[in-house]
Design a protein that fits this description.
Blueprint: E1 2-5, H1 15-39, E2 42-47, H2 54-64, H3 68-77, E3 81-83, H4 88-103, H5 108-136, E4 142-147, E5 162-164, H6 167-178, H7 192-202
Parallel strand pairs: 1-4, 1-5, 2-3, 2-4
Helix pairs in contact: 1-6, 4-5
Length: 203
């Protein structure tokens, strides 16, 4: 199973970021071509947020505007088929809980409740995704999974996993770190923002 980290672009993103995203996907494409020559042709494609199969899955992926769409379509042209990694209702539930978590909370009680529900939905979703892969990926077949970094999927022991990490990925991560907001620092240099962040983690 070849695993590719999903890197998303956005029309409003800075040109420097967009260039790095494009370089990343170009290098992913190159590495997949080399891996296919060594391991065999990809037969099954699994993509986060996709609950359709075949051509319907490609159409859905194109509507989402993910740069991975071009890579997936190329692999499918060589004989691969897109499998329905997600279950629609479960994926929708997880997406809703994610939005709540990102919005933040005034109440710690509500925060704990939502995080518990989000964690439960994520666990169900991951178990479903692994079940799909295990049921469809045959022995000695090559599969291709597109999923966000830090996905938390626990692959069965009978599936050999290869992470596809081109040089542009580290370059992109460095750019994001360099351009992330810096924590606020008090005049005395004590950094109250850092204390607040530590408190939130402790909570």
């Amino acid at each position: 199973l070849l695993v590719v980290s999903l890197v998303l672009g956005h029309p409003s993103a800075p040109a420097e970021y967009s260039e790095r995203v494009e370089r990343y996907w170009s290098q992913v494409d190159d590495q997949l071509t080399k891996l296919a020559a060594r391991l065999g042709t990809v037969r099954h494609v699994y993509h986060e947020s996709i609950w359709e199969t075949g051509e319907a899955a490609l159409d859905l992926l194109q509507k989402m505007g993910s740069r991975s769409h071009e890579v997936v379509r190329k692999v499918c042209a060589d004989g691969a088929v897109v499998e329905a990694l997600e279950e629609l209702e479960l994926a929708a539930e997880l997406s809703d809980w994610e939005r709540f978590v990102l919005q933040g909370f005034a109440s710690s009680k509500v925060a704990d409740l939502v995080r518990d529900l989000y964690t439960g939905a994520l666990k169900q979703r991951n178990e479903h995704a692994i079940g799909v892969i295990d049921a469809t990926l045959g022995e000695d077949e090559v599969g291709l999974l597109f999923v966000r970094e830090g996905h938390g999927l626990q692959f069965p022991a009978n599936i050999e996993v290869f992470s596809v990490v081109p040089p542009a990925f580290d370059e992109l991560q460095r750019w994001l770190r360099d351009h992330s907001p810096r924590p606020a620092v008090d005049e005395d240099g004590s950094g109250t923002a850092g204390e607040a962040g530590a408190k939130e983690e402790a909570d």
